[in-house]
Amino acid sequence: MNARWSWFNITSVVFGFAFLYLPIVLLVIYSFNESRLVTVWAGFSTKWYGELFRNQGLLDAAWVTVRVAFISATVATVLGTLAAVSLVRFTRFNGRTLFTGMVYAPLVMPEVITGLSLLLLFVSINFARGFWTVTLAHITFSLCFVAVVVQSRLVTFDRSLEEAAQDLGCPPFQAFMKVTLPVILPAVISGWMLAFTLSLDDLVIASFTSGPGATTLPMKIYSQVRLGVTPEINAVCTILIGVVSVGVIIASILTKTREVQRQRDEQAAFAQ
Amino acid sequence: MTLLSAIRSRLVILIPYVWLLFFFLLPFMIVLRIALSDLEYGSPPYTPQFSLSDGWSGIWDKLSTLDFENFAFLVGDSLYINSYLSSLKIALISTLFTLAIGFPLAYGMARAPDRIRPTLLMLVILPFWTSFLIRVYAWIGILKQEGLLNQFLLWLGVIDTPLEILSTNTAVYIGIVYSYLPFMVLPIYSALDKMDESLVEAARDLGCTRIGAFWKVTARLAVPGVLAGCLLVFIPAVGEFVIPDLLGGSGTLMIGKTLWIEFFNNSDWTVASAIAIILLIVLVVPIVWFQNAQAKAAEAGK
Predict the structure, then answer these.
(1) What is the ipTM metric for this complex?
(2) Which regions span the lipid bilayer (chain B) (predicted)?
């Protein structure tokens, strides 16, 4: 659909984006505020950023968060890709309905329920709460997001390419690794990134499943936010926003060029 | 197919299947079990009604003596009933507001020139990657008494005394609409994007007014997107914790917050579990609806 772009359309787009971005922009601006009073502008300063790097508790939490996010995103990507392959390739197996349900339900499940239920699982199997329980919890809910992202790419993949490889003597597993995986790789990568940011962001599930010594950055930010708005938190948030935005923009440019290249290759393969 | 590859293809299903059974389904069983248990102070603070070590006969014996006293307690105490009702009300109203803002945005995006559409799409997705907590936090500085919004309105001369927005339900509505807007915009945009503009032209040619053509063609074709968007906003909003906790006041009752308080402040695991079970029962219809729509969309993709 692409007709005239009326004034009404332009206005609603401009207002919509202003609404989406203004709060974040204000937060970033006020992280450079000289004054401790967040809402009173007193001149430009980067002192709150300096302050951050002297805050050991915050740095520790950031390190825990990055490790949890890295491990959980990686495992979730492997499991989520397997789940996506199962959903797309195996249309009939015992318990498929249950499986489909378990993949889609966590996408909309309220976090308090997921968090509570996982905590109760860890308690009842006597698993010491801490770094690993948070990681396991994050793997579980992010693998479903990876599965959906990879699935949407996999359904449009022409399976005859993989069958051709098998006809030429390639075993199924190798055919998958050599033909299918490179094609769905952009989706797998964006699935990994989604899992990574989901883990980086999560407060509720981490609060339920964490234990002593495994305070994540969102938990740390949350406990400080409850005491009020401070320029240090604005500075932490600004750094996080910066890292994520740069990562997403670079990744989307990379996957776009790859995607275009892949499509060209696929077409070329058919043309021959 | 050789035996080895048969085993491999079984493993493809089995690994994620077993993982989800253990980390997703089993935990729910445990929540249900604890919801039916008696509270006992200690760690873990509950007396299980039955455990797997009893064997099946043991479970049957205990099943006959199961008590629903935690549920009776929830029904008996108006705090919980009110929490559920007010969560549903807040989620419903916020969903309608999100639709009111999200639809024109998605519509405007779908009609934008081809060259800028990918950028617009990217701009809608980008906030989704930014931390939820941070986006909610950003509103505290804007909405509070001496915050930026009040400063701005005072400067404009629209108001004489600062408005009290933070710690009210209004702030919760703003927070939910803001946080979930991309979830509403994306499905509507993808429904409108696929639409054939010549259908609207045909309606106009056949004598429809512009508004008539919009209602009869565009709005009808956007329905699946609107439904998906509404469910994606409504379901998580009902169980929302961060937004009512940070932006709402002590008068803001939401079930996610009540569950959190029961669990972390009152250490009452059995009541927290019972709340979770009822919340799940309330949400099961929209969740199943959403799943079917998802599965159908995935099949249609083939």
Answers:
(1) 0.84
(2) 12-36, 88-108, 120-140, 171-192, 213-238, 269-290
How distant is the Cα of B263 from the closest Cα of chain A, in angstroms? 9
The one-letter amino acid at A44: F
| Tally of domains in chain A | 1
Name the token pair of A271: 């043309």
Show residues of chain A in contact with B137, CB under 8 Å.
Answer: 27, 221, 225, 229, 233, 237
Best to test chain A binding among B50, B105, B233 (most A CBs inside 10 Å):
B105
Question: What are the φ and ψ backbone dihedral angles of B47, each rounded to 5 degrees?
Answer: -105, 110
User: pLDDT by residue (tens digit) across B165-193?
Assistant: 888 899 999 999 999 999 999 999 988 88
Domains of chain B: total: 2
- Put simply, the answer to whether A118 touches B23 (Cβ < 8 Å) is yes
Which candidate from B104, B126, B246 shows the least CB-CB separation from A248? B126
pLDDT tens sequence across A188-198? 988 898 899 88
Query: What is the CATH classification number for the domain harbouring B203?
Result: 1.10.3720.10
Looking at the fold, whether B95 and B232 belong to one and the same domain comes out as: yes
pLDDT digit string, tens, across residues B108-132:
999 888 888 888 988 888 887 778 8
Listed as own residue / partner, the contacts of A242-251 with beta carbons closer than 8 Å and 24 or more positions apart are A244/A197, A244/A200, A244/B129, A244/B130, A244/B131, A245/B126, A245/B129, A245/B130, A247/A193, A248/A193, A248/B125, A248/B126, A248/B129, A249/B122, A251/A189, A251/A190, A251/A193
User: Which among B9, B112, B134 has the least Cβ separation from residue A241?
Assistant: B134
**Looking at the partner chain, which of B5, B31, B107 has a beta carbon nearest the beta carbon of A171?**
B5
Terminal CA-to-CA distance of chain A, rounded, Å?
34
One-letter amino acid of B146: E
What's the CA dihedral at A183, A188, A189, A190 to 10 degrees? 110
Asked if A129 and A198 touch (Cβ cutoff 8 Å), the reply is no
Contact between B297 and B231 (Cβ < 8 Å): no
Nearest-angstrom CA–CA distance, B257 and B242: 8
The pTM (predicted TM-score) of the whole model is 0.84
CB contact under 8 A, A12 and B114: no
Q: Which residue has the tokens 């950028």?
A: B119
Compute the distance between CA of residue B58 and CA of residue B82 in angstroms, rounded to an integer.
37
* Structural tokens at position B273: 């579990």
Under an 8 A CB cutoff, do B113 and A95 touch? no
Judge: B276–A86 Cβ closer than 8 Å, yes or no: no
Mind listing the pLDDT tens digit for each residue in B27-61?
988 888 888 876 554 445 555 554 555 455 555 55
Which domain does B3 fall in, by range?
A: 1-25
Phi and psi at residue A213, in whole multiples of 5°? 85, 0
Asked whether residue B225 falls in the same domain as residue B117, the answer is yes
From the list B23, B130, B197, the residue facing A140 with the nearest CB is B23
Domain assignment present for B49: no
Alpha helices in B132-219, H assignment, sequence order: 132-143, 148-156, 169-193, 197-205, 210-213
Residue B42's pLDDT is what? Answer: 41
Both B2 and B101 in one domain: the answer is no
Q: At what angle do helices A96-108 and B3-20 cross, to 10 degrees?
A: 40
